[in-house]
Amino acid sequence: MSMNTAPPAMAAKERRWITSRPVRRFVRHRLAIAGLVMISAIALLCVVGPWMLPHGMLDIHIRDRFSPPGSETYLLGTDAMGRDLAARLFMAGRVSLMVGIAAMVLSTFLGAVIGLVAGYFGKVIGTVLMRFTDAVLCFPQIFLLLVLAAFLEPNALMITIIIALTSWMEIARIVSAEIRSLRERDFVTAARVSGASHTWIMFRELLPNTIGPIIVAATLTVARAILIEAYVSFLGYGIQPPLPSWGNMLNNAQQFLDTAPWLAIVPGVAITLAVTSFNFIGDGLRDALDARSDLQ
Amino acid sequence: MLRFLTYRLAHSLLLLFLVSVIGFMILHLAPGGPLSQFALSPGMSQAELEKIAERMGLNRPLPVQYLDWAARFVTADWGESFRDGRAVLDIIFGHLFATLLLILTSTILSVGLGTLVGVLGAMRRYSAYDYLATVGAMVALSIPTFWFGLVAIYVFSLRLGWLPSGNMYTIGDESFLDYAEHLIMPSVVLALVQVAIWSRYMRSSILDVVGQDFVRTARAKGLTRRRVLYVHILRNALIPMITLTGIQLPTLLSGALVTETVFTWPGIGRLFLDSLGYNDYPVVMGVLMFTAMFVLLGNLIADLLVAGVDPRVRLE
Amino acid sequence: MSRVLSVENLGIGFRSEGQDFTVVRDVSFSLEAGQTLALVGESGSGKSVTSLGIMGLLPPPPQSRTTGRIVLHGGDGDGDIELLGLPESRMRRLRGDRIAMIFQEPLTSLNPVHTIGDQIVEAIRSHRRVSRAKARTRAVELLEQVGIPDPQERLGTYPHELSGGMRQRIMIAIALALEPDILIADEPTTALDVTVQAQILDLLRRLQKDTGMAMLFITHDFGVVADIADRTIVMYAGQTVEEGRTETVLSDPLMPYTIGLMNAVPRLETAGLKLGDLKTIEGFVPDPAALPQGCSFHPRCAYMQEGLCDTSPPSIEDAGGGHMVRCKRWRQIGEGRET
Amino acid sequence: MTIRNTNRMNRRTLLRTGAAGMTLLMSNAAVGRLAAQEASGQVVIGFSQEPTVMHPHMPHIEVDEGIHFNLFDPLFIVDTEGNFQPSLAREVPTVENGGISEDGLNWRVKLRDDVTWHDGEPFTAEDVKFTIELNQNPDFNAMRRNGHELVRNIRIVNDHELTWEMAEPFAPYPAILSWTFIVPAHALADAENPNQTDFRSNPIGTGPFSFGERVAGNYILLNANKDYFGEGPHLEQAIFRYIPDMTVLYTQFRTGDIDVIGLQGIQPDRYEQAQQIPDREIVIAPSSAVESITFNMGNPLFQDPEVRRALSLALDRETIVEALYYGIPEKTESFLPRESYYYNEKLPEAEFDPEKAAQVLDEAGWLPGADGVREKDGVRLAFKNSTTAGNNVREQAQQLIQETYASIGVEMEISNLPPAVMWGEYWMMSQFDSVMVGITFTTGPDPDVSNYLHSSSISAQGGAGQNTWQYENERVDELLEQGGRMFVPEKRKEVYDEIQRLVHEDMPFLPMFQYANLRGHKTGLEGFDPNVNVRIETWNLNEWRWA
User: Chain B contact for C337, CB < 8 A?
Assistant: First the structure.
């Protein structure tokens, strides 16, 4: 029960009526559930899909190339080399989702550790780390990312690392701000007095208290990472063929835009659906985990 | 005020220094080099390439190269392009107009539309409209900009033939209409994400303000709804949006880069990508520094603006 | 003494996420010119919602619905006006003009980005066709009236530059700008220091005397009630649970909830001596969507009798001389006190 | 060297004017006046790369030469047939006409006396001397010194004649001179730093067009040089539009926003569609670049000739050319372009026979291992193949090859790199296993390929050159040295026929096809005549005109 519609004056006074728990709030969030269902379906298709199709993603059928969607054995048509687009789409989904999630894990880890250390130690270390974070934030992400991508050997791992290296800053800021506000709380003082080590306090006492915002930011990072992978691969700096990704499928599709538009439309829709799912989930999580969510 | 400015400038300078070090390291520590583009020219050899590298000063120790670069940078000499030998700053300024035109147009679009969508959403909270706007914004945030641009080109240029598929103007016809025609697709595509962001934040900012006591006071005074909205709610709700605009600058520039590449818009983003392709390090470095300065300056201006419109904020 | 406002069988409910619940039930009272009525209760008892209902500031249907009658009685030849169902445009014209309101948080009740001068002028000019200059002159008068030094200069200041007490004075000035018939004061002193509280109460009393307006004073603090109110209504869970002349209610409270509230007031004689006597009522105001069976106060009531209080809701009864009580055991409670 | 001492006009032009004799008799000044009267209209040329380097001797890429050809003139140029035609020189120096001594060591060049720079200064021998010396100047950031380094004792005989000596005979030097654009001494000689001159943004030449303006990232505008000494120009303006996206480029060609689509031109898959566009002519323009799979002979795997033979047998050139490149380029066996006088037509055609390839490997002792990949002495027959990331069609070819190779038990891993990495030390210092690349081996019309095939050109072994496959064959070395000193084409051809045969046999790389680009122009544009000997189609813009 929430008093969302109560007049503003009531909101604060009647908050105690709100008996919400994060899980219930999330479940009630229709979009979040839609997102969860959608992304599960996509993931399932990507895992199981390739086995259910008659063609492998690398099988070349030059004669059948540019078959439009729905032709004979090709569900979504074929590409410029006569490879089954559906098979490639699903395999590409694996790659893109994996890259997105791995980049999220890596950047979350990086951001959390930097934020934690910066927030906990404050003073010199904190200042240095946060200034560094600020400096990296000055670069528009795509610019920084392209510089890295242009000079490094492109493969899935490298792209993951590059994306992580350019998207940890937000989480670092969130975590360091949270930690700074938590640092002086009683339970931390108590832990310190009882002789707990810095590491213990940081990871066992402080980090769990910031997990809500981290989860929200991490979910949105997956969405962004998928978009970025797509863009970088589209430009040809990303994941390299024959390994398909949604982004590099678009790279190849660009030149056939007027003759075989499905090559561009199919992966684009897949990206949009996947990213939308993660954004919906992130929105739901924010509502569920963030007390101020009403206002977001 | 003065103290604030001094502090912020010092802070910005420190950040710029870090930015330059990070940029320089990435550019110069990475394998490959600026000369690889000449490798396949007839009659080229590694020995020739090394001679060119030496003449260009590319084989000196990195710190020396950095200091040399930095010493010139502070005197507004950002080096010369490896390609055409023009001053980097001139090249950047040469592309600035296109980028500014694009981002300003799309910002006006997105601020206008985003505010409208956000205000309506906040005013009719939980209505079908609000729900639709929320979902719409989330989907808009999820569509890959470059792909959206491609689809737009496919539909409006290739299929319908209504709009030009790229460039900023037709050579020989540089009329206002011609510019406008070229501007429509890129600015709309760039605005898509910005509208989504703006409307979301606007909605939440409005709800934030609507919930404040002074709005109730205003209504209790018997003001018209319109006056409450414009004089009391919007005025306050827009203040955080100024800060947001500053914070969103990097996103906007990233978006501009993507849009410029899809629509071959001759702006900074396009310049950056081209220079990257040709390993034109001085220009790449210059654009990196320029965007960072743009972002820092944008945020500073945003802070000053907030201080200007919000009497509670004192610059210290 | 003329009646300026009658509230009859007021009921207010909200709808949230498809669920309806009632927060004010069957509340009736009236306001007399020059008199003060106090509405007392804890947070969530429905007193603030009642005041917003009178002001017409509740969210529009279907998010909220209001039943009963609220009648603004005309003075100066105007007829009676039924406020419920009045179109917003007409209601707007009454707000601030005939009925004004001040709020609990002077810190946040003023718009931070406009000068106080503008905010006063705005109130005047939205109801009267007067020039800016005239409105400013009036604003200076008002500031003088509410006891603000250097009023001319204060017009150009922003709310955050003033203290809480000052800001509440500004709020009062705005409310009084058009000499309303009714002033609703929603916990106007709660957020202020004790010394400032007294000043503000003095000010309100003085202004009431000068203007003859009726005041609806909302508070949870019986100390304040004693200070200012002629009549008192105690509300709990959206209902009137006790009502009467202030002296009567204070000296002879019959509803256990009222007794509990009064015990929660630090009195001068107990302060510093027997702090242990300062009691609070256990528990919370119930969720309006899940009211307890029987008397809604019974889960927290010290006088609760099983089988009586938890079965059917009590009705309101006259304990003599217009002292109304909603409690099945008011007689026992009253007797207990006498013996 | 065959020399046709015609004016700088090709046969088509002569036929068109229908007054060949007249034209030849006309003084150059007359031609110039005629051009001035004629010049009308403009042409918009779309390039997918941006010309930025206006100084023709500073490091640049092929698109820049599209501008150089029009702003400047060399002493003589190469026509579409591979013949030199005089430009700033009155005649092409040869052994026959005494311009080059028998031993190739002494040169004498006579210049035209009717040429002025765009700024009105007269063109003299001083300019030629300056240009060659500029390319020798250690402080100057020259693109290539190759050939110029051998020039000694440049002597100015008079304003329009000069001589020099060569440190050693160097047959490709005429070819090098044919793209050595003469730059003005008066504008450049006084520069304190030859690398930082105003000339780079405001070039002055003698060419048919003068520099108008450049809007960076957008276009370059050239204006007709009405005093041009040669034919034309017939157009008032030429606009080089930079349109970085191939799809947009094609669209603008289709809609008529650009008149000519140049450089990489139209993508092969659009050939059929492009031919349907009304009022457009699509031209297949052969390029001298040859696409091949190259092997790094430093890798023990490729030192086994049987492996190279098997890989050649399993290379389906036919499908690559026909399906992926839509049959536009032609299969080739040689590294020399088909149009070259020195092209060896008798090379046996490579077969495609995967079964035979498997058999070859079986016989050579490469037997399938547990994972299906062949092994020999514990070495797996697995290697990487790299190319520039982002080249779609080439990536498709890689994938096709990968599939066939896999079918004979050879594992080819595709590992593509961004250009900056690919063409850096990875390529130059032979750090790759194998590469798919299109290379122009020749030096203009000259068949000298020492830079790519001589064992002294292996950069990875301290040499100077691009023998990145580390090919070493003593006989080839000998022949290359011999051919480099020969000035009589008929005799020289025998040497290069033999070199081509030997390399074809050794297979340090597998040539697949000679590139051909689809270019298009609006119907009514005359004079568009791609030249395989130069890198860009705007080499003869002075002859273009609207019908």
Answer: no
Q: What is the rounded CA–CA span in Å between residue B288 and residue B208?
A: 36
For the record, the structure tokens of A259 come out as 């003759």
CATH code, domain with B249: 1.10.3720.10
Closest CA of chain D from B291, distance in Å: 18
Where are the strands (E) in D391-493, listed by range? Answer: 411-414, 434-439
The sign of the CA dihedral B223, B229, B235, B236 is positive
> What angle (nearest 5°) sits at the alpha carbon of residue D504, between those of residues D498 and D505?
95
**Structural class in CATH, domain A48-55+80-294:** mainly alpha
Q: What is the pLDDT at residue C175?
A: 87
CB-based contact B35 D61, cutoff 8 Å: no
Residues 6+ apart with CB under 8 A from C203: C146, C147, C169, C172
State what percent of residues in chain C have pLDDT above 90. 4
Q: Is D378 left (phi over 0), alpha (psi -120 to 50) or beta?
A: left
Higher-confidence position of D520 and C273:
D520
Query: Does residue B282 lie within any of the structural domains?
Result: yes
Residue with the two structure tokens 């899809």:
B262
Report pLDDT digits (tens) over A35-78.
899 999 999 988 887 777 777 777 777 777 777 887 777 778 88
The SS3 call for residue B33 is coil
User: Hey, what are D405's tokens?
Assistant: 């190779």
Which of B171, B192, B196 lies closest to B182, judged by CA?
B171
Report pLDDT for D435. 93
Distances (CA, A) of A257 to A65, B44, B89, D192, D448: 15, 37, 37, 52, 43
Burial class (CB in 10 A: 0-12, 13-18, 19+), D180: buried
Secondary structure in 3-state letters for chain C: CCEEEEEEEEEEEEEECCEEEEEEEEEEEEEECCCEEEEECCCCCCHHHHHHHHHCCCCCCCCEEEEEEEEECCCCCCCCEECCCCCHHHHHHHECCCEEEECCCCCCCCCCCCCHHHHHHHHHHCCCCCCHHHHHHHHHHHHHHCCCCCHHHHCCCCHHHCCHHHHHHHHHHHHHCCCCCEEEEECCCCCCCHHHHHHHHHHHHHHHHHHCCEEEEEECCHHHHHHHCCEEEEEECCEEEEEEEHHHHHHCCCCHHHHHHHHCCCCCCCCCCCHHHCCCCCCCCCCCCCCCCCCCCHHHCCCCCCCCCCCCCCCCEECCCCCEECCCCHHHHHHHHHC
| pLDDT higher than 60, residue A11 | no
- Among the partner-chain residues D319, D396, D414, the one whose CB lies closest to the CB of A80 is D396
Model confidence at D86, in pLDDT bands (50, 70, 90)?
Answer: very high
Predicted confidence at residue D48, as pLDDT, reads: 85
Please, what's the b/e burial string for D114-145 (b: 16 or more CB within 10 A of its CB; e: otherwise)? ebebbeeeebbbbbbbbbbebbeeeebbbbbb
Number of domain units in chain B: 1
> Cα–chain-centroid distance for residue D110?
27
**Mutate which of C12, C287, C291 to disrupt the A interface (most A C-beta within 10 Å)?**
C287
How far away is chain A from the Cα of C216, in angstroms, using its nearest Cα?
17
Give the domain extent around B225: 88-309
Q: Do B213 and C103 touch (CB under 8 A)?
A: yes
Cα(A82)–Cα(A72) distance, integer angstroms: 13
pTM: 0.80
B286 pLDDT band, cuts 50/70/90, is very high
Phi, psi of A7 (to 5 degrees): -60, 155
- Count CB atoms within 10 A of the CB of residue B304: 16
Domain range list for chain A: 48-55+80-294
Residue carrying the six token digits 């979902």:
B135
